[in-house]
């Protein structure tokens, strides 16, 4: 007698290379963010308590932003956008159909920021400390994400005759009507990979002032770039630079893409989103530099500090209760503080 066990599902699971690469990028970014938070004095792997909120809400934000900027793809005569299933199984035109593509990075930043704020409130981390630790790591995750676009041939640009042009199969849903098979297109995801990689170097260089110091390497004395021990960009200013850098790149990448998008005042919706990202980043940088001229006293909010086992108390620590005169202190002064009137996060 033959017996079986399982469920009769109206759909099949499909794991794509793109999804695996995205997952790998998230894992790598998590490890790097954990290392950067530990260097700031945070508890090891507290990052997991934050990303458990940031990643799911980032996915929700990514999908919501895409749907809102592509309403005509889901809401039209005869459509059934709210149903997950139809007579054939999974409904590919549902607003919930993330497996059919359509996740906007700007929406994921908004949703992820909300999730990170929740996670930071629960753990006691300063939100801007976490954001600064995440800034270069999220660019690295986005590099992997755009590598995934090579495998699914999404987000390519205008036709080109440049030698690095990408050939897209004519069956691709985004293939422009009227163009002959074999047409080459700008690999915008490759451009973004390069832009983000350079951005990582930019952020790390801006975060710490580097100078050439003579070091012995393999028996040879050579000048090696060495950064300051303490970051000079804190209180969310490094994250602000990320917003500006990434937004500037997206303005150009979005301008040469051919996939359908809502247009407002002759400009694609995602270009407007990138412009808003740049403006918000500039404002954030200026406001935080003005509000917090001193050094972050701790990666934690007052009263939520974490002390490693075996650590001893010391008066040579940062404090939110120091005098306002300490706000102008430099990073080399161990007793520097952001001032008693500074906002904790």
TrEMBL record:
Binding site for a 1,2-diacyl-sn-glycero-3-phospho-(1'-sn-glycerol): 146
Membrane topology reported for the UniProt record: Multi-pass membrane protein
UniProt name for this protein: Phosphatidylglycerol--prolipoprotein diacylglyceryl transferase
Classification of source organism: Bacteria, Bacillati, Actinomycetota, Actinomycetes, Micrococcales
Residues that span the membrane, as ranges: 15-33, 45-65, 96-118, 125-145, 189-206, 235-253, 265-287
Main location, first listed in the record: membrane
Family assignment from sequence similarity: Belongs to the Lgt family.
Subcellular location: Cell membrane
UniProt keyword Transcription regulation present: no
EC number: 2.5.1.145
An example molecular function term from Gene Ontology annotations: phosphatidylglycerol-prolipoprotein diacylglyceryl transferase activity
Function: Catalyzes the transfer of the diacylglyceryl group from phosphatidylglycerol to the sulfhydryl group of the N-terminal cysteine of a prolipoprotein, the first step in the formation of mature lipoproteins.
PANTHER family, A to Z: PHOSPHATIDYLGLYCEROL--PROLIPOPROTEIN DIACYLGLYCERYL TRANSFERASE, PROLIPOPROTEIN DIACYLGLYCERYL TRANSFERASE
Enzyme class: transferase
UniProt keyword terms in alphabetical order: Cell membrane, Membrane, Transferase, Transmembrane, Transmembrane helix
Pathway terms, separated by semicolons: Protein modification; lipoprotein biosynthesis (diacylglyceryl transfer)
Region named Disordered: 295-345
């Amino acid at each position: 007698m033959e017996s079986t066990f399982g469920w009769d599902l109206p759909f099949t699971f499909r794991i794509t290379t793109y999804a695996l690469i995205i997952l790998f990028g998230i894992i790598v970014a998590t490890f790097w963010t954990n290392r950067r938070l530990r260097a700031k004095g945070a508890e090891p792997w507290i990052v997991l308590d934050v990303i458990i909120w940031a990643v799911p809400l980032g996915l929700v934000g990514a999908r919501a932003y895409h749907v809102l900027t592509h309403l005509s793809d889901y809401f039209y005569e005869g459509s059934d956008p709210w149903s997950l299933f139809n007579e054939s199984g999974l409904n590919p035109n549902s607003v919930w159909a993330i497996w059919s593509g359509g996740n906007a990075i700007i929406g994921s930043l908004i949703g992820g920021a909300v999730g990170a704020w929740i996670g930071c409130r629960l753990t006691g981390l300063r939100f801007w400390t976490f954001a600064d630790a995440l800034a270069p790591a999220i660019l690295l995750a986005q590099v992997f994400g755009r590598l995934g676009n090579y495998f699914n041939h999404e987000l390519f640009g205008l036709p080109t005759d440049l030698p690095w042009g990408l050939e897209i199969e004519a069956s691709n849903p985004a293939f422009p009507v009227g163009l002959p098979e074999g047409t080459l297109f700008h690999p915008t995801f490759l451009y973004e990979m390069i832009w983000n990689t350079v951005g990582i170097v930019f952020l790390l260089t801006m975060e710490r002032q580097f100078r050439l110091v003579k070091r012995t390497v393999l028996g040879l004395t050579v000048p090696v770039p060495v950064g300051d021990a303490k970051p000079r960009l804190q209180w969310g200013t490094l994250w602000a630079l990320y917003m500006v850098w990434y937004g500037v790149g997206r303005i150009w990448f979005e301008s040469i893409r051919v996939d359908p998008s809502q247009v407002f005042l002759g400009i694609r919706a995602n270009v407007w989103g990138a412009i808003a990202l740049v403006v918000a980043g500039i404002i954030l940088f200026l406001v935080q530099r003005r509000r917090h001229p001193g050094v972050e006293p701790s990666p934690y909010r007052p009263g939520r500090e974490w002390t490693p086992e075996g650590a001893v108390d010391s008066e040579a620590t940062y404090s939110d209760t120091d005098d306002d005169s300490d706000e102008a202190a430099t990073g080399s002064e161990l007793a520097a503080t952001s001032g008693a009137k500074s906002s904790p996060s």
